[in-house]
Amino acid sequence: MSYGGAIFSRGDVTLVNVNIVGNNAGNGEGGGGGGIYTVCGSGMLTVRDSMFKDNTALHGGAILSHHHAGITDVRNSIFIDNSAISGGGVYAPLGEVWISNSEISSNVATVRGGGVFRVAGEVTSTESAVLANTAPTDPDEGGYN
Asked: Which carries the bigger pLDDT value, residue 22 or residue 141?
């Protein structure tokens, strides 16, 4: 299994003005976070003015943010043409996801959550476009409550 096609972290991560393009994290063999995979108990993933494009993974085509009580904070960023089984753009199993002034579009999930997928926690989107994503269930945003 492989995690984090471009970046793997067990702590806080801040990305500013970064392009993460064309990465793969074990698609078909397990793994997640085609662009970035973060995991920690209560950390924070901060993304500003960045682009995630053409990344693939089992879960979280662009990002798999596995923070149990943490926060994924995305602002002024673009997620386009990423793919996964669940969470073509962003897969956040736990914690909170804040999306502001961003675009999550044209991402594909073969099962659920083409744009954003969460298992628990909450997704808050302000002044953002989460649209034109593809999945059989919850094409733009989905998850369990």
From this structure: 22
Helix (H, G, I), strand (E, B) or coil at 58: coil
Can you give the residue ranges of every domain in the chain?
A: 2-131
Q: Could you tell me the pTM of the whole model?
A: 0.92
CB 130 within 8 A of CB 107: no
What is the pLDDT averaged over residues 32-38? Answer: 93
In this predicted model, what pLDDT tens digit does every residue of 82-113 receive, in sequence order? 999 999 999 988 888 999 999 999 999 999 99
